Amino acid sequence: MLYYLFKYFLNNFPGAGLFDYLSFRSGLAFVTALLFSLLVGKKIINRLRKMQIGETVRDLGLEGQKSKEGTPTMGGIIIILATLIPVLLYNDLSNIYIQLLLITLLWMGFIGFMDDYIKVVKKNKEGLAGKFKILGQTILGIVVATIMLVNQDITIRTENYNQTETVQKKLGENFNPPEKSLKTTIPFMKKNKEFDYAAVLRNISPGLEKYTWIFFVIFVIFIITAVSNAANLTDGIDGLAAGTSAIIVMALAILAWVSGNILISDYLNIMYIPGIGEVSVFISAFSGALVGFLWFNTFPAQVFMGDTGSLTIGAIIAVVALFIRKELLLPVLAGIFVVENASVIIQRVWFKYTKRKYGEGRRVFKMAPIHHHFQLKNWHESKIVVRFWIIGIILAAISIISLKVR
Fold it and tell me: Which long-range contacts (C-beta less than 8 Å, at least 24 apart) are formed by 168-174?
């Protein structure tokens, strides 16, 4: 809203031109979301406490676990509201990427809220049935993939100009026109080594290329479902999911900004995506909301995000990665999520296999997800969280370095 207001007064209001700069609006979005989380978050927590919306903790034999009983949950509401307000204020809402991210934020927030509501208010420990969560994620995946396929504003552009031309010409006529494409970046590979979804089917059989859209839709559903559920699994101890996600999201903000800047993307020799720079404002707001929420979520937590937060966080990360054509980088950037998810899969598969073979199930980890394994090794929660954050920072740095190391 302020974005459009300052656009209107651009020629008559001193300083209004600042709103043309993504860096300025991104900074404002981060600060606004952070302040909202800090100033309003406490009131929301108190309201949740008065409504007796507290966490019901299963006794898993973990130290300090029962002390968390009754801690307010559904704190993801703070993250969603703190993101929504600066986005509405500072973003260009006509941008298709922002529209889809708002749909993702509200839709997955609703799915997560319903799960938390059933658990806490209806006192049903099972929460929303798994099939309905998957259905919600699948619907989102279909919407995102379909719009990416058909919307003419979602394009990429390849640079092709005479190096001796002026910057003015580089920015205009000497660039190839935008093209509809399903190409995406392969980490640590040069720009001309991009992954093309159509090429996968073409290599199997030329006649299958016409079904590329089906393959793409399925892949998008898989990415959104996998990352969303992985973020949900990571939300197991105080500050782990919020802190890890904030690191991932900040790295995505950098990747979105450079991908949407025509000169920097050319300098780095990476794919230029018209209009994607606007996403950096949204992500900055989201990261500010996460950092603000972390103020109340660090050990000992005053509030838990619940599925309202964790499912939304994972979906936003997945959708942004798809938009900036960095979904194949997620195993590195979101490596903590991958390890958490993998630990659960390995534990279950090995337990079932050994039970069939030996008549008694055996475990690889003391408990899964893996952060509980370290708890049972008598690591304090704070030590586990901080060490996971450090690993997350290293993975984020590697992801950003991948722009140049190819």
Answer: 170/262, 170/263, 170/266, 171/262, 171/263
